[in-house]
C-alpha cells in the first residue's frame, strides 16, 4: 500500500503526523514532507486513519 | 434576522452578526441558514453572501485565487490596511508563511510547553481557593495574553496594558457606534505605537523572539519593512488572544453544564486532546470572509467579481452531510477532520499553539478544580466579530 499526499492541498494541519509521526513526517514548516509514503504491511489501519483525519482531504491510498 | 422573498436565486436575509445576543443564538441562526439554502444573500450593511454548507465552503477555502484574502471583513471590501499574513494573497503570502511556519510548527510549539504550563498552574491556583470565578475575566482572557507576550518577547509587566487594549479593540461596546469606533481607534493607535517602539529596539538589540526573527525575513529579495512588521505584530495581537479565550469560554461553558462530559475528562485526562477537537468542531468560532476576484458561481448562483462572501467555519463543521449528529458534542468523536482552523493556504498559522494552550489549560484546570458548575447568576452573551461568550460566565465549586 502507498499513501499519496497532494502537496498542493496540504496546508500544514499536521493531523496525519499526529496519527503516525514516522509514516507522515513533516518539513521544517510543519507541512507534509513526502508526496508518497510506502505503507509497510500491518500499518494499513494507520494509513486509513490518516486519510480520515486530513481536513484538506489531501491523502489517498492505492 | 428577517427573511424576504428572494428576487434572484438565493434567499435574502438581513442579519448583523456583530449584534449582541444571548450565547448560542447565533449558531442556531447559522444552522437554520444551512437548512434553508446553500447560499444566502445578507442585505445587512453593504450586502454580502453567506456560504452555508461544507462542500461549497471547502471549495472556497481551497481556491484562494478566486476567493481572495485582500478584504476579510464583509463590511469593508476596499480596506486601506492589511494584516500580515492574513490579508496577503498568492506568492507574497507563501513567502511569509514559509518563513513563519518553522516558528509555529507542532515541533516548534513544544518548546513553549513548560512556560505555558507553569503560567496555567499559577493562574488556576490563584483562582482555586476562591470557590468561584468570572471565567472569561479571571482566566480565559488572561492566559493566552501571557503566551502572546512570551512569544513576542514582551515584558510580563505589560500584560495589563495589553488586556486593556484587547478589551477596547475587540470587546468594547460603548453607548454609541461613534464612541465605540473612537475607543477602538485610540487603542489601535496605542498598540501600533507600542509595536513601533519594540521594532526599533529589536533592530538595535535583537532577542530570541518572534519580532526579532521577523526582522530577518526576506520578501521578494528584500528585508521586511517597518510598515509590514507593524502589520504583522498587530495581527499576532488580534489573532492570538481572543480566539483561544473564546474557545476556552465555549469549552468550559459546555463542561460546566454537562457534568457527565466534565467527569469523563477528570476520570480520563488522556481524552482531553480528542475532546478539544470536538469542541473546536462543534463550536468553530471564526467567521471569515473572502473577496470574489472574478465572476463565479456558488451552488448554482452567479456571483460577481468584487462581492464579499462570508464563509463561517461553524456552517461547515456542523453540517450533517459530513459529520453524524453534527450539532451534538460527542466528546470522543472519531474520526474528526474538522476545519475549525480553516482550510487552504490560510489555515490558522497558530493552530498548533492554540491546541497546546487549550490542552494544557484543560489538564491543569481539572487537576486543581475537578468539580465545578455554572453559577445561576451567569448570563453569557456573544458579540463582535466571532462566536463565543464575551463575559457574564461564572463558575463555582466547593472549597
Spell out the blueprint of helices and strands:
The complex is a heterodimer of chains A (62) and B (399).
Chain A: E1 2-5, H1 15-19, E2 36-38, H2 44-53, E3 59-61
Antiparallel strand pairs in A: 1-2, 1-3
Chain B: E1 2-4, E2 12-14, E3 21-22, H1 25-36, E4 39-42, E5 48-51, H2 54-62, E6 67-68, H3 90-104, H4 106-110, H5 113-128, E7 132-134, H6 135-140, H7 142-152, H8 159-171, H9 177-204, H10 210-215, E8 218-219, E9 222-223, H11 226-257, H12 259-267, H13 272-282, E10 289-292, E11 296-298, E12 301-303, E13 308-310, H14 313-317, H15 351-368, E14 373-374, E15 381-382, E16 394-396
Structural overview:
The complex is a heterodimer of chains A (62) and B (399). With 62 residues, chain A is of the alpha+beta class. In chain A, 24% of the residues lie in helices and 16% in strands. Chain A has helices at 15-19, 44-53, and strands at residues 2-5, 36-38, 59-61. Chain A has a 3-stranded antiparallel sheet with strand order 2-1-3, covered by helices on one side. The longest helix of chain A has 10 residues, at 44-53. Chain A is globular, with a radius of gyration of 10 Å. Chain B has helices at 25-36, 54-62, 90-104, 106-110, 113-128, 135-140, 142-152, 159-171, 177-204, 210-215, 226-257, 259-267, 272-282, 313-317, 351-368; strands spanning 2-4, 12-14, 21-22, 39-42, 48-51, 67-68, 132-134, 218-219, 222-223, 289-292, 296-298, 301-303, 308-310, 373-374, 381-382, 394-396. The mean pLDDT of chain B is 93. In chain B, the strands form 5 sheets. Chain B has a 7-stranded mixed sheet with strand order 1-2-4-5-13-10-6. Chain B has a 3-stranded antiparallel sheet with strand order 7-16-14. In chain B, strands 3-15 form a two-stranded antiparallel sheet. Classes of the chains: A alpha+beta (62), B alpha+beta (399). The A-B interface holds A 9, 11-15, 17-18, 26, 28-31, 49, 52-57 and B 58, 62, 97-98, 101-102, 104-108, 335-339, 341, 343-345, 347, 351-352.
